[in-house]
Amino acid sequence: MKRESAEECLNFFDVPQDPTRRTRKGIYGSPIFGTEGKRVQVILLDRGYYNIDSPAQE
Taking the domains of the chain in order of start, what are their residue ranges? Predict the structure, then answer.
């Protein structure tokens, strides 16, 4: 179930079908948006994927 959820999230955010991003565990990343001089980096953490106590583990 985790893999399917991660795939849906990546699809929702239009993440390219880059094999590096799509095959690793979790959906963490740090995309940069904007133009020169007006950029912002969003750091995405995926605490839930590795959480042993998560109900999604079942």
Answer: 2-51
Residues 46 and 26: beta-carbon distance below 8 Å: yes
**Cα 16 to Cα 33, 48, 52, distances in angstroms:** 15, 22, 29
Q: What confidence tens digit (pLDDT) does each residue in 16-52 have?
A: 887 788 888 888 888 888 999 999 998 888 877 766 6
Burial (CB count <10 Å: 0-12, 13-18, 19+), residue 12: exposed
| Cα–Cα distance for residue pair 24/26, rounded to 1 Å | 6
State which amino acid sits at residue 34.
Answer: G
Neighbours of 27 (CB within 10 A): 21
